[in-house]
Design a protein that fits this description.
The structure holds 2 protein chains of 2 kinds.
Chain A lengths: L1 H20 L2 H20 L2 H4 L5 H4 L2 H13 L1 H9 L1 H6 L5 H21 L2 H10 L4 H26 L5 H16 L4 H8 L4 H9 L2 H9 L5 H25 L3
Chain B lengths: L3 E12 L2 E12 L3 E5 L6 H8 L7 E6 L2 E2 L4 H5 L2 E4 L11 H11 L4 H14 L15 H13 L5 E5 L7 H14 L4 E6 L2 H7 L2 E6 L2 E6 L1 H8 L4 E6 L5 H10 L4 E6 L5 E6 L7 H10 L4 E7 L3 H14 L1
Parallel strand pairs in B: 3-8, 3-9, 6-7, 7-8
Antiparallel strand pairs in B: 1-2, 1-4, 4-5, 9-10, 11-13, 11-14, 12-13
Classes of the chains: A mainly alpha, B alpha/beta.
Chain lengths: 248, 318
């Protein structure tokens, strides 16, 4: 068991450092901070709302993640396949699950770093007023969970192709459908031909409705289970895809 | 009896309709260097990918050090060092970090890992490039990094897919010396389409074409087995007209005697026989009788290349 975790950690470590070896990490962090604060102050009207909370900050996260998570995750497997290093990885004494989990965790920790760097906005709101810090903490946690689901989806889809751009596009489109799953735009396309339970299942998969509950400070077990099972499902498919597509 | 470190039987692999490897048996013992020869697309890389556990065969079994690769892949893979075709590596990493990563994944740590890294730096001549990103290295150094990652855990089995491809003659020479040096206590399989490489480093040559194993023997035995028709070539500094030509042919009792004009004043007599190699002494004595001035006499050795061409084209014709 120890050995099992150790190998997963070595993969994670290499992958996480990999983000910082290229300008990718700094560019991503800059863009994330600029967009998240820009949206909070200009689109979310942080000051005009005159309320001591971070709703204006968190409500943009699903849309930000829609673009930024595929940007982080698109290379996870597409690049391994393009450069042929997948052959090195798979011939090492390590399971595909260890590889998939290690890589995924690296990207998830990277987004945690990005979220931690937005802390000044939390400090600001505490300086200006008296916000409910529990709500903010749950929102941060919710945001990180949602990012994890987006990343697991991207990681899974990046195993389908050798091309990072294709991985980015299909991940963004799939992410968009998952965000919008609770809305009529998606539901009306399904409702006409499918039984009610399918429509309801799809509706319950909406990232937006799950996230908005957390954002209100409602720590709902079903939401936690939803995001975690979403990650597990995507990573499980990811392991299967690596096995099937490795030699293509 | 020598220990078979690789023992593969009835390997078969197809991709859709295309049969890449068709019933290949292969075993390699400690101390052996097996040269895997074949035209491009013959199934060399596919076979190697199966031996290393990257691809699962459709049929057949692979035992690595008596461990079934299918039922215990993690254990079996520990014994193998593998250089995939094109020597892929993480190009944004520096050499030291990359080798250390592979070492750790191979279960090395602490002092042993540092010692192995140092050995690799010295043995594979990577010292001067140690802290450079791999993407800035020349092709030769990238290939060395690939060899180093395959050797880092001092494996019993080494599988190298075209280790000298793209190297300059000096680098090729170095690589062959290295393979020879480490071959004494390992089982090594190298694939190549350079035949001189097989002659230089391999104790056994395996020729495959269209996924089928066509020959599996020492380079020497292959020469004897497939083309036992060495030609004796004698160069004389005389003009040879039809009369002399006829005389030569009647004196030399061999299946095939040909006379070729080499240049204005010299001719070459080529003597070969389907049954046995011509006897040099006898032939020289006979030619001396005709008072011809012999400049040079030697056997034109049949090269592995000719054997390779004969075997693989015969197979294609079938």
């Amino acid at each position: 068991m120890n050995n099992y975790l150790n190998k997963t950690y070595i993969i994670l470590d290499r992958e996480l450092k990999g983000y910082f070896r290229t300008p990718l990490a700094s560019i991503f962090l800059l863009v994330f901070l600029a967009l998240s604060s820009g949206m909070t102050f200009f689109l979310g009207r942080f000051f005009e709302r005159d309320q001591a909370d971070l709703t204006a900050f968190f409500s943009w996260h699903p849309w930000l993640f829609l673009v930024l998570m595929p940007a982080i995750g698109m290379r996870l497997w597409a690049e391994e396949r393009r450069s042929g290093t997948i052959e090195l990885l798979i011939t090492l004494p390590v399971t595909n699950t260890q590889l998939v989990v290690g890589k995924f965790l690296a990207s998830w920790i990277f987004t945690l770093i990005a979220l931690i760097l937005t802390m000044p906005i939390w400090i600001t709101v505490n300086y200006l007023g008296d916000p409910d810090n529990n709500v903010i903490l749950i929102s941060y946690f919710g945001s990180w969970l949602m990012a994890g689901a987006f990343l697991a989806l991207t990681s899974c889809l990046s195993a389908l192709t050798k091309n990072q751009v294709i991985a980015f596009i299909i991940s963004s489109i799939s992410g968009f459908l998952l965000i919008m799953a609770g809305f009529n735009l998606v539901l009306s396309a399904v409702r006409s031909w499918s039984p009610n339970w399918i429509t309801e299942t799809i509706s319950s998969m909406s990232f937006l409705s799950h996230f908005s509950r957390l954002q209100m400070g409602v720590f709902d077990l079903s939401t936690l289970i939803f995001f975690i099972s979403m990650m597990i499902l995507c990573l499980w498919i990811n392991v299967q895809l690596v096995q099937v597509k490795k030699a293509d | 009896m020598s220990v078979k470190l690789i023992n593969a039987t009835n390997l078969k692999k197809s991709f859709d309709q295309f049969i890449a490897v068709d019933n290949i048996d292969l075993s390699v013992s400690r101390g052996e260097v097996v040269g895997f020869l074949g035209p491009n697309g013959a199934g060399k890389s596919t076979t190697m990918k199966m031996l290393t556990g990257f691809l699962e065969p459709d049929n057949g079994e692979i035992f690595i050090n008596n461990i079934n690769l299918k039922s215990d892949p993690l254990k079996a893979k520990e014994y193998i060092g593998y250089l995939p075709e094109g020597a892929p590596s993480y190009s944004d990493m520096i050499v030291a970090d990359f080798l250390s990563f592979i070492g750790k994944m191979r279960g090395l740590n602490g002092n042993y890992l540092s010692n192995r890294l140092e050995e690799m730096a010295n043995q594979i001549n990577l010292k001067e490039m140690w802290d450079r990103p791999i993407e800035t290295l020349s092709k030769g150094f990238k290939r060395r990094v690939g060899i180093a990652q395959a050797l880092i855990h001092d494996p019993d089995i080494l599988i190298l897919d075209e280790p000298t491809d793209g190297l300059d003659p000096n680098q090729k020479h170095e690589m062959r010396n290295l393979i020879k040096k480490i071959s004494t206590n390992k089982a090594i399989v190298i694939s190549t389409h350079i035949l001189e490489e097989v002659e230089a480093v391999c104790s056994r040559a395996v020729i495959i074409s269209n996924g089928k194993l066509l020959a599996n023997d020492t380079p020497k035995n292959l020469e004897n087995k497939f083309l036992n028709k060495n030609t004796l070539s004698i160069k004389v500094s005389n003009k040879i007209n039809d009369v002399i030509s006829k005389e030569i042919k009647s004196l030399l009792k061999y299946d095939d005697v040909r006379i070729q004009k080499t240049d204005i004043s010299a001719h070459t007599i080529l003597v070969s026989d389907n049954q046995k190699n011509p006897n040099l002494n006898t032939v020289l004595k006979q030619i001396n009788k005709l008072k011809l001035d012999i400049i040079e006499a030697n056997f034109q050795k049949v090269s592995l290349e000719e054997i390779f061409r004969t075997i693989t084209t015969e197979n294609n014709l079938k």
